[in-house]
Structure prediction request, 92 residues.
Amino acid sequence: MDQSNISPATARDIKRLRAKLAERVALGVPPATAERLLNVSHKSLYVMLNAGLLDSYKVGRARRVTLASIEDYIARQIEAHPMPRTRRRPRG
Prediction:
């Protein structure tokens, strides 16, 4: 969804809704899944975890990375490095 056309009030409402959903369902994925979602190596994922860029928790001996932290990381990256808008040239 193109979020550049969303008003600030709507964006705040979306953020509040996501926060409520995150409180109800704290979803986590194994590191291998987080690596695939972020398209990073195993080492890079653990560097990000150790730097505090992603949140994780343990269930027994298994580590889980929260989906909310993955989404937040992606949103921060998009804000920090926006894609330039380019116009397509007509063919011909």
About this structure: Helices lie at 8-24, 31-38, 42-50, 67-80. The beta strands are 28-29, 56-59, 62-66. DSSP finds four helices and three strands in the chain. The mean pLDDT is 84.
